[in-house]
Design brief:
- The two termini are 28 Å apart.
- The chain has 2 domains: 132 residues, Rossmann fold, CATH 3.40.50; 76 residues, Rossmann fold (3-Layer(aba) Sandwich), CATH 3.40.50.2300.
- It has 11 helices and 5 strands, in the order E-H-E-H-E-H-E-H-E-H-H-H-H-H-H-H.
- The N terminus and C terminus are likely disordered.
- Helix 2 runs parallel beside helix 3, helix 7 crosses helix 9 and helix 8 packs across helix 9.
- It is an alpha/beta fold and 235 residues long.
- A 5-stranded parallel β-sheet has the order 2-1-3-4-5, sandwiched between helices.
Length: 235
């Protein structure tokens, strides 16, 4: 396929595509940036190595398209995807992972992604994936077979819905809670009052239907990468 012959539809209202690449492997980000630069006309590309950094970037400049690695230093599984969907609901999110698994593909699509691309896919396949997504359709690998019945259990679907109801700030605070940080540390990290953290925590627990922060952490971990695949990731 000749890259120069590919004509891509516009993602946003402006002609300049705003793209955020979220991956903690610099070489992968560089390679993806080069590929996207050949597909689209002078895209504005930003990168982030953690979900925390990504959430900061999307709050400053909302992207049109997000390319997300599931396994990041500060989050894994569809939890990161859910938080990004909450922070930038209008952005299209394409998930990239080194594990091409029907269960993972189904879970990310159920959680709001518009595509799943296995890491290591040839450039021609990346072109096809982005073209399908830009056309407003869902991209999945050719060998993808949807699991019989709903992949996500009713319980996990309810968890996804609850996490999706959190505001961006509440999602950030929940992530810090999952890291084991205390209210005072969270207040310092976010430059807010400790009473504000407590107020957010109360709202988080109410939305999640839990009684304490430990239960909130356990609930969030139900949609972690390990719980989806049953194995640790080598991403």
């Amino acid at each position: 396929m000749n890259m120069a012959e590919v004509v891509m539809p516009s993602f946003g209202e402006t002609s300049e595509l705003r793209l955020l690449l979220i991956d903690d492997h610099p070489l992968f980000c560089d390679a993806m940036a080069m590929t996207v630069g050949e597909i689209f006309d002078a895209p504005l590309i930003q990168t982030a190595a953690t979900l925390k950094e990504a959430l900061k970037r999307v709050s400053d400049t909302p992207p049109d398209l997000i390319v997300l690695d599931l396994n990041l230093p500060d989050v894994d599984g569809v939890d990161g995807l859910i938080r990004l969907r909450s922070a930038v609901p209008d952005a299209k999110i394409v998930v990239v992972s080194s594990i091409s698994d029907n269960r993972v593909t189904s879970s990310v699509l159920d959680s709001g992604a518009v595509g799943f691309v296995p890491k290591g896919s040839p450039r021609e396949e990346l072109v096809r994936a982005f073209q399908i997504v830009a056309d407003g359709e869902i991209y999945t690998p050719e060998d993808f077979v949807a699991p019989q019945g709903d992949f996500l259990s009713q319980e996990k679907q309810e968890v996804v819905e609850k996490l999706s109801s959190l505001t961006p700030q509440q999602s950030v605070i929940l992530n810090l809670i999952c890291e084991g940080k205390l209210n005072k540390q969270i207040a310092y990290d976010l430059s807010i009052a400790e009473t504000t953290v407590k107020a957010h925590l109360t709202a988080i627990m109410r939305k999640l239907g839990v009684q304490n922060r430990t239960q909130a952490v356990l609930l969030a971990k139900k949609v972690s990468y390990v719980s989806l695949t049953g194995e640790t990731s080598e991403d």
